[in-house]
Amino acid sequence: MGSRTCDLVGKVHPAHQFDLDALFRYASANVQSFPLSPTKFTVSQFGHGHSNPTFLLEVGSDSSVKRYVLRKKPPGKLLESAHAVEREFRVLHALGTHTLVPVPKVFCLCTDSSVIGTPFYIMEYLEGRIFLDPKLPGVAPSRRKVIYQATAKALASLHSADVDAVGLGKYGRRDNYCKRQVERWAKQYLAATGGSESERNPKMLELIDWLRQHIPFEDSSGAAAGLVHGDFRIDNLVFHPIKDRVIGILDWELSTLGNQMCDVACSCLPYIVDIDPDNVGQSEGFELTSIPEGIPSLAEYLADYCSASGKPWPVAGWTFYVAFTLFRAASIFAGIHSRWIMGNASSGERARNVGKKANILVDAAWLFIERKSLLPQHAPSDTIAQDNLQKFGIDHKDQGLSLESGKFVPNMKVQELRVRLIKFMEDHIYPMENEFYKLAQSTMRWTIHPEEEKLKELAKREGLWNLWIPFDSAARARKLILDGRYVASTDKASDRLLGAALSNLEYGYLCEIMGRSVWAPQVFNCGAPDTGNMEVLLRYGNEEQMKEWLIPLLDGKIRSGFAMTEPQVASSDATNIECSIRRHPP
Length: 586
What we know:
Aminoglycoside phosphotransferase domain-containing protein, Aminoglycoside_PTrfase, globular
């Protein structure tokens, strides 16, 4: 079973103790709703992990306690650019404020080392479960699959964040990420083992050379770069206390902008090697022997990620990404061992043997390189989908699909619409949700918010209007609309009223985006029951009905409803409708 977050704490390590009174004064002045006159204020330390020291703050009284989490830099001399809590705070604040990526809320950042000895920040405490063992012992097999699917979905959510829209466009360099990362971690390894040549593993130096020679192609402009977590593992996720969904992604110390496939490889390491620093062995991972019942295979897990993120199947370059991830982990472990020698490792005595275990990861990297890859050429779900389409004589190209490395992906037209739709949601829909909710809860809830009408016009101008219309349904009405009798005969009028001529499958990629906000469908004129009523008119309406009802509905000038009465039958079959109209006397 997963450990509750508060079960992972213990006494503060002597090397990490600090002035509690100074911390209390700072928190009282800078954390909103922080109890000002508590009878209880205790600090304990989370023992899991080897990165920035992390502490649980409990403040209040015996009957009411509030919990917070504090992350700080370790004391003493640190490797260059390591343990930047300032960057952690920045990315958490941006994601928590502007996206749906599951992260804890941050309250304040203190860069004044005089308060408790190093910079730190305070964030909310998430009550939930952390699964320290990726094999998920004690978890029912049926739930293991759901947990892994939730992990893949959380990673896809992180990778879908528009860094420019949320203020992270300059969070890191975008160009040549893999090349720079290899050099950075090679430098870190040399610095961590600089005290003794005997501590440097010759195989590690050879691995550095291999990685330099096999860096995958990266656009020098960095246009394809996105947000990278840097250490995305299942034990860095907080799951809901009872539901198998991720409520928080933790430990953003290594986050930056770059090649997101490195994150994907990191999340897959449990399939390759056991990297628990307390239990690293020479096992090649449970993918190669036996997978605990319920846990998906490596290919199935990757297929879930690709489906949720829209990324192509990552068989190209997979050997590099896995070898690089093992190399980076080995470099990090060497740094932990170095900090243990200096007496400031955040995990205390647990770091004693990590230096030796770094060498095991190097061996694992070479084993993987010799094996080349564990991935099939095609995603399992894609192969099934392609076989089914062929079975029924359907050409995937007719469904708006293309094949990239064996994976079905939307064509360029749909991808471009998807990018524009995501940007519209982040720029205009999400910022207005609170205002729309306020109106819905007020006595004016049956009125239309003025801003909604403005957004509708903007959606029309940007070609994001009536995207739901199937191309075959639109064909019947096109002549009526374009012949000039009811709507000006222009290409813009056609685009505005009859959508983008998508298939239902193509529209599904856009529905996923609009479904992230309850208000979005009506802003894009894609909400029920209007869509269903419009399609009935598009397919079966006569010219008079289309003129009177369809055109105003397509243009968003009126709304519609769907009423059904069944006095004689209990059914939701619309053909069973029986109704009558009677005029009441005045």
